[in-house]
Write a structure and sequence with these properties.
Elements lengths: L2 E6 L9 E5 L9 H10 L1 H10 L7 E5 L7 E5 L11 H18 L4 E4 L11 H14 L7 E6 L2 H14 L3 E3 L15
Parallel strand pairs: 1-6, 1-7, 2-4, 5-6
Antiparallel strand pairs: 3-4
C-alpha cells in the first residue's frame, strides 16, 4: 500500500530516488519549482532536456538528477488554468499519472511531488490539490511505496492539510527530510 508524506520545504533537497519537476512544455526551465530544479541540477539538466525536445501537457519525461540529491527528475507538464473549460482537470490528473508511470518503469520505491500547476500556471489550489491526492492514491503501484508531497509555501501547506483530512488519506506530515522513515539516515 502506498504511504504518503507531506513536508514544507525545498524539493531540490529531497534525498530520495526521484523528484517531479513542474515543467513547461519546452522543458526549458523557467520560474518557480522548474527554475529552482534547473539551477540546482546544473547545466547538464538543460542539455538533457534539450535532447528530449519537449513534452506535451499532461505527460512526463525523465532525466538524471545530475547535481541534485535525487537520482532522477521526472518532468511533468501540468495545464495552464484557463477557466476550467479546457480539460484542465483531466490534463492535471494525467500529468500526475504520467509521473507515476515513469517512476514505476524505473522501479523506484519513492517519489516527491511539488504542487503541479498551482504557481505560475494559476490552477486553483484547492482543486489542484484534491486532484493530486486523489490521482496519486488511486494509482495501482507495484514498486512505488512512498510518495512525498513537498510544498514551498504555508498557504499551500494548509490546503494540503485540509484536503488530506477531508479525503482521509494515509499521509503523515514531517518537518524534515531526515524524518522520512524510508530514507537512510544522513552520514555523520
Amino acid at each position: 500500500m502506498l504511504e504518503g508524506f507531506l513536508i514544507q520545504g525545498d524539493i531540490t533537497r529531497y534525498p530520495g530516488s526521484a523528484i517531479v519537476n513542474a515543467a513547461n512544455a519546452a522543458l526549458a526551465g523557467g520560474g518557480g519549482v522548474d527554475g529552482a530544479i534547473h539551477r540546482a541540477a546544473g547545466p547538464e539538466l538543460a542539455e538533457a532536456c534539450r535532447k528530449i525536445g519537449g513534452c506535451p501537457t499532461g505527460q512526463a519525461r525523465v532525466t538524471p538528477g545530475f547535481r541534485l540529491p535525487a537520482r532522477y527528475v521526472i518532468h511533468a507538464v501540468g495545464p495552464i488554468w484557463r477557466g476550467g473549460q479546457h480539460q484542465e482537470a483531466e490534463l492535471l490528473a494525467s500529468a500526475y499519472r504520467a509521473s507515476l508511470v515513469e517512476a514505476e518503469s524505473l522501479h523506484l520505491p519513492d517519489l516527491a511531488f511539488p504542487a503541479l500547476s498551482i504557481g505560475a500556471y494559476a490552477y486553483p489550489a484547492e482543486e489542484a490539490t484534491a486532484i493530486a491526492l486523489k490521482t496519486v492514491f488511486a494509482f495501482p503501484c507495484e514498486f512505488l511505496r512512498w510518495v512525498t508531497f513537498v510544498v514551498y509555501s504555508d498557504p499551500v501547506l494548509q490546503i494540503y492539510r485540509r484536503q488530506i483530512a477531508q479525503l482521509q488519506l494515509p499521509v503523515k506530515e514531517v518537518g524534515r527530510y531526515s524524518e522520512l522513515p524510508f530514507l537512510p539516515p544522513p552520514s555523520p
